[in-house]
Design goal:
The protein has 12 helices and 21 strands. By secondary structure, it is α/β, with parallel strands linked by helices. A hairpin with an 8-residue loop joins strand 8 and strand 9.
């Protein structure tokens, strides 16, 4: 072992870490051992008394002294340590360039099992790819040029910024890398928000091909990275139920579900969104896919729209609910439960007998048991019987890390409503 600061956990706090959980919270730490200023003797202190710098590599131990792994410390965050390796720190940091290159290459290569280099997909999924806080999306335009959109959400990846960018350039033939580190989570990490081209360049709006469908992606101003790649397979699955049907795509974002429904043979699709910018993008995507005669847009709050549709007796054969995350923290789960339940109750009432409901939640904190409990109670309150035809999640480019339930964030149920 080297001379890295050693953090010791309270008794039994290692249980989740051993199972694969990659974080340590500030209330889980017993004490810290560090070398004094002369580097001659080890001292033991409370965390607040330790002068170890944020962004430094540390070694994590159980109370009894069992080594758990190497991480990056950030005392400004409630997540005080994010683990980056189960090897000792001296081995991790003896060649940081090689360490990061291997992690990036491992993530890119596993995607090649299911995705060609000419396909858009998520290349790196943060903790699930053992690169905490780092999101990397690959968007390939119709001309074959590759662009990456990156998000550095945590200090644990920010400290490796240069190595990560260099490794991405080496692993992928990229035209440009655009940074979208403009999320509020950066503030919780003590980091300023950033956005813009950090390598190469190009147009901020990219036209991609997904399963034969064309979509404009606004990497600079769109939500998160500009497009939700995680629903790729679910969109295709939903489209299979849409031939000859009247479809409502609620919370349509840029219209991906709606356009898949149209391509699947729907006779009419209504795409509802509250954002005028999103509605403009739906229309743009409808035009490029020659679906303007089938897809109609409504710029309106979806809660209000569903209520009005119910009052006026509207009926649909297929309804797709893909709302934003209603639960953004553990404290908001109860309120989110009410919101999810309301839209699902109304959707079930709007469906014709035997209609199909494709309903989703992308909230990390709203886990699968809670999601399906909500659907059960929505069915009860709508006085409908519901068959779950499929329980789905994110596509293959969003791996789930065992022991880290937050990586299994997306729930997508395809249900028949009777």
């Amino acid at each position: 072992m080297g001379n890295y600061t050693r953090i010791f956990l309270n008794a039994k706090e290692e249980c989740e870490i051993v199972q694969g959980f990659p974080w340590v919270f500030d209330n889980e730490i017993l004490h810290v051992k560090y070398l004094d200023a002369d580097g001659g003797a080890w001292k033991t202190a409370e965390l607040v008394e330790c002068a170890v710098a944020d962004g430094s590599g540390i070694e994590l131990f159980t109370k009894a002294g069992r080594f758990l792994g190497t991480g990056i410390i950030n005392k400004k965050s409630k997540i005080i340590v994010r683990l980056i390796s189960h090897e000792h720190a001296d081995k991790v940091f003896e060649n940081t360039k090689s360490f990061i290159e291997k992690k990036v290459c491992d993530a890119v290569n596993i995607r090649r099992v299911n995705y060609k280099d000419s396909e858009s997909c998520r290349l790196i999924f943060a903790e699930a790819d053992l690169l905490p806080g780092l999101i990397v999306e690959r968007f390939v335009d119709v001309g074959g040029l590759t662009y990456l959109v990156v998000q550095f959400h945590a200090l644990a990846c920010e400290v490796f910024r240069k190595e990560i960018v260099n490794a991405l350039v080496k692993a992928c033939s990229v035209q440009g890398i655009y940074e979208r580190s403009d999320a509020a989570i950066r503030e919780k990490e003590g980091l300023a928000e950033k956005s813009g081209w950090i390598y190469g360049g190009g147009d901020e709006t990219i036209l991609i091909n997904e399963n034969g469908m064309l979509f404009y992606v606004d990497v600079a101003h769109g939500q998160k990275t500009g497009f939700f790649l995680d629903q790729k397979d679910n969109r295709k699955a939903a489209a299979a139920f849409c031939r000859g049907k009247r479809v409502l795509d609620a919370f349509a974002h840029t219209g991906a579900f709606a356009l898949y429904a149209a391509a699947g043979g729907a006779k009419e699709v209504i795409a509802a969104e509250i954002s005028e910018a999103a509605v403009a993008m739906i229309k743009k995507n409808s035009t490029v896919n020659k679906a303007g005669g089938v897809v109609k847009t409504v710029c309106m709050d979806v809660f209000t729209l569903l209520k009005e549709y119910e009052a006026s007796g509207e009926k649909f054969d297929v309804i797709i609910l893909d709302p934003p995350a209603f639960a953004k923290s553990a404290k908001s789960i109860q309120k989110a439960y009410g919101g999810y339940k309301e839209i699902n109750v109304r959707a079930m009432r709007l469906l014709r007998d035997g209609g199909i409901l494709v309903t989703c939640s992308c909230s990390t904190f709203f886990d699968a048991p809670t999601f399906y409990d909500m659907l059960m109670h929505a069915a009860r309150d709508s006085h409908r019987r519901v068959q779950i035809l499929a329980k789905r999640g994110a596509s293959f480019d969003h791996p789930v890390l065992l022991g880290y339930e937050r990586s299994e964030y997306l729930k997508c149920a395809i249900a028949r409503v009777l």
